[in-house]
Specification:
The chain has one helix and 28 strands. With about 350 residues, the protein is mostly beta strands. It has a domain of about 140 residues: YVTN repeat-like/Quinoprotein amine dehydrogenase (Methylamine Dehydrogenase, Chain H), CATH 2.130.10.10. A four-stranded antiparallel sheet has the order 3-2-1-28, with no helix packed on it. A four-stranded antiparallel sheet has the order 4-5-6-7, with no helix packed on it. The longest helix is centred in the first third of the chain and has 13 residues.
């Protein structure tokens, strides 16, 4: 019996823990996060809590080891660091730092040691050192750009950072020094976008030297060739996110995501109230596949790490729409709707092992 018990114990210890996924929505109008647990097989959500984080939550970013989450507390002009409880999905505050303005986007560099921020109203970008305990260093590095800096991400090599700006209609190009936690202007410092497009958010293609932007004003998606040696971009293609018979003036684009297999891109339409779906061929060329309806004003959405589901928040009515995602066709199939708080502005799916 002793040997049997030992054998069973070894089997239990050798069996990997099942993945657990949580879905978060930042409800800026209600100053709390809606927290759900996701069923890995069906995508159905179970409401866990409405968690207050001591301010009005906005954009989020999760560390690569899934232990820490960083949130822009926009109205309070702060960045917050939180510890993630892998069992409950709850956040525990580590610290907050004042930034002088509300960040419209936050992102970690590839090493997880630099927290980058883009600031829409203030027209600047920042870099803060992330300490070993996950806390944010009080003193940060700051560079002035222009108003309407809307996102920031580092390239796969972690040597460069790109910052799309809507109003100036260009993307700022930086070099990143991780050791110093500093950004310096690249050469040239900006890359122009096609007239009237106004790039808002961006994503790097997972296996091509291409960058894609959601274009707020032109209701479009654009691709740019990325020079991985120089860290600069050059426009390649722009495709509308709308059907031909829809009034462009009644819409603006917001978020963009690319499937992990690199075959599809998704862009949210605020006004047409849909997620536009695009095929990306082996060379990255964009082909429109149509639009799938959402709730009103889908400002933010996120693809689950298992690539089976997509969740989109309707900012106007405070609803979260759940879609099944076919990662071979790009098709979205709506299967559930959940209540959120007021003015949800960010959706994040976090999977922990």
């Amino acid at each position: 019996m002793r040997y049997l018990a030992t054998f069973i114990l070894c089997l239990i210890m050798a069996t990997p823990a099942a993945a657990k996924s949580f879905v978060y929505a930042s409800n800026g109008g209600d100053n709390f996060l809606s927290v759900f647990e996701m069923n890995e097989d069906t995508g159905e959500l179970t409401k866990l809590a409405d968690q207050e984080i001591g301010g009005s939550p906005g954009p989020m970013w999760v560390s690569q080891d899934k232990k820490h989450v960083y949130i822009s507390i926009r109205k309070d002009a702060q960045l917050g660091a939180y510890r993630l409880n892998a069992d409950t999905g709850a956040f525990t505050l580590i610290n907050k730092v004042d930034t002088g303005a509300g960040a419209s986007y936050v992102a970690l560099d590839k090493t997880g040691t630099c927290l980058l921020g883009a600031y829409y109203q203030a027209g600047k970008v920042t870099v803060h050192r992330v300490n070993k305990d996950g806390s944010i260093a009080e003193k940060g590095f700051e560079v002035a750009t222009e108003q309407k800096a809307h996102a920031i991400q580092t390239d796969p090599s972690n040597q460069f950072a790109l910052v799309p700006h809507t109003g100036p209609n260009n993307t700022y190009q930086f070099r990143l020094n991780v050791d110093k936690a500093e950004l310096t202007a690249n050469s040239p410092p900006t890359a122009p976008a096609p007239e009237g497009t106004e790039p808002r958010h961006l994503q790097f293609h997972p296996n091509r030297t291409l960058v894609y932007t959601s274009d707020e004003k032109a209701d479009s998606i654009s691709s740019y060739r990325f020079n991985k040696k120089k860290g600069t971009i050059k426009h390649v293609q722009t495709v509308s996110t709308l059907p031909d018979d829809f009034d462009n003036d009644a819409n603006s684009c917001a978020d963009i995501e690319i499937s992990a297999n690199g075959k599809f891109a998704f862009v949210s339409n605020r006004g047409h109230n849909s997620i536009a779906v695009f095929a990306l061929d082996k060379d990255g060329k964009i082909t429109a596949l149509g639009q799938t309806p959402t709730e009103a004003i889908p400002r933010s959405f996120n693809i689950a790490p298992n690539q089976k589901f997509l969740y989109a928040a309707g900012q106007k009515d405070g609803k979260l729409v759940a879609f099944k995602l076919n990662d071979q066709t790009g098709k979205l199939t709506r299967f559930a709707t959940y209540d959120l708080g007021k003015s949800p502005s960010w959706v994040q799916v976090i999977t922990v092992d």
